[in-house]
Amino acid sequence: MEERLQKILARAGIASRRAAEELIRQGKVTVDGRVVTDMGVRVDPARQRIEYGGRPVAGAEEKVYVLLNKPTGYLSTLADPQGRKIVTDLLAGVAARVFPVGRLDYDTEGALLLTNDGELAQRILHPRFEVNKTYVATVRGNPPQAALAQLEKGIMLEGSRTWPARIRVLAAGERQTRLEITIHEGRKRQVRKMFAAIGHRVLALQRIAYGRLRLGDLPLGKYRFLTKNDLNLIFSGKNSLYRG
Length: 244
Ligand code: URA
Fold this sequence. Notes:
Layout: E1 3-4, H1 5-11, H2 17-25, E2 29-31, E3 34-35, E4 42-43, E5 50-52, E6 55-56, E7 65-70, E8 99-100, E9 109-115, H3 118-125, E10 133-140, H4 145-153, E11 156-157, E12 160-161, E13 166-171, E14 176-183, H5 190-197, E15 202-210, E16 213-214, E17 223-225, H6 228-235
Bound molecules: uracil.
């Protein structure tokens, strides 16, 4: 059966669908020995030979799910031309070619899921599926309730409104305040930009959960393989962020 090339690559665990499109655009994918950069191309994986980076794409690769407690100072990418440390440096013992599901900033630590399951990555990343991501942010100063309520309702950020968020103050102080914030979007540096928008710079940021899957006591820099049960926790009990 013919399918779109990016869909096949995602299912084979090469990358999320969006990232697979980028790989195609970059000319890294061949079909029957010919580079394909056209996004509309449909291919039959049962009859045609698909290769990525010179290696055959095996659709049946076992799916692997890893939860890493990412330290700051690591990039959530698979390579860095500048030679900085990358998250997969921390995955000795994971043989599968996993990729990060979304990103955590270089200076953010905490829960980072890595997998070779492109479909699952898509479900977690797309705001339509409303997978909550929870962070603990330490911000400068003590944001007033009214400003936090604004963030919860949604604010204009770079031309579009943020989706509702939930915020809980964990420890308030004059110089700095720790808060827990739950959002289900994944815009670039979103939490930092949201607090900056109300005038409170983020000093430290940690992701502590995807849905109900929590980082728990996983040590910094360590990972564990996830079970089916863990995966269910990501999607269970949507915990809708909408009020009323
Ligand atoms: N929001 C941020 O600002 N940074 C992250 O790494 C994740 C969410």
